Amino acid sequence: MNVYVESNFMLELVFEQDEAAACESLLSLAERGEIHLRMPFLAMVEPEWTLNNRSRERREAERLVDRTHAQLRRNQSLGAESHRLSGDIEALFTLCEQEENKLIRRTRKRILDHAFVISADSNTLYSTESVALAHDLEYFDAVMLSAVLSDLRMRGSEPSCFLNRNSSDFATPSIRQELAQLSCKFLASFEQGYAYVRSVLSRLPPAP
Length: 208
Prior knowledge:
With about 210 residues, the protein is an alpha/beta fold.
């Protein structure tokens, strides 16, 4: 069975978000060879932008903390406490950045070791504009969907699903219909997706 995911699959795992457990279970299925996990190339690199944005937000927060501390250290009753707390905040931000960088490297390696990365070839990029217009998608979302559609056409009628928490963009009737025509079911939840995958696997004949 083919299971298509994109960048928010990796982000769930890296940031240990609400549906990280379901994503971990899906990745474990791929590691055991029970499903074919498939991910567009862009989805492998987009999480780096998210990490960079978070890092930039923390640096801005640190500058605000520093300015506030500079004001409070003149206060005899609050100066010492402000110094301690500002140091704690900076240490927390540093720890967050270190852990996130470690997790994204580890998660990316696991996915690369056990998933198929869909390349962004010229046909995918040529079709991106028409996909964006047909489904009213932003460009990056259209690149993701175009890669999935292109790969599905090469897979034939194999049972497939596309799992994505970005329901505001992908969970539209037109996208669901186009995916369904290619024997692919869309689910806007990794938890629901994992349950669906387990259900499909239970009905498949055992591997020889």
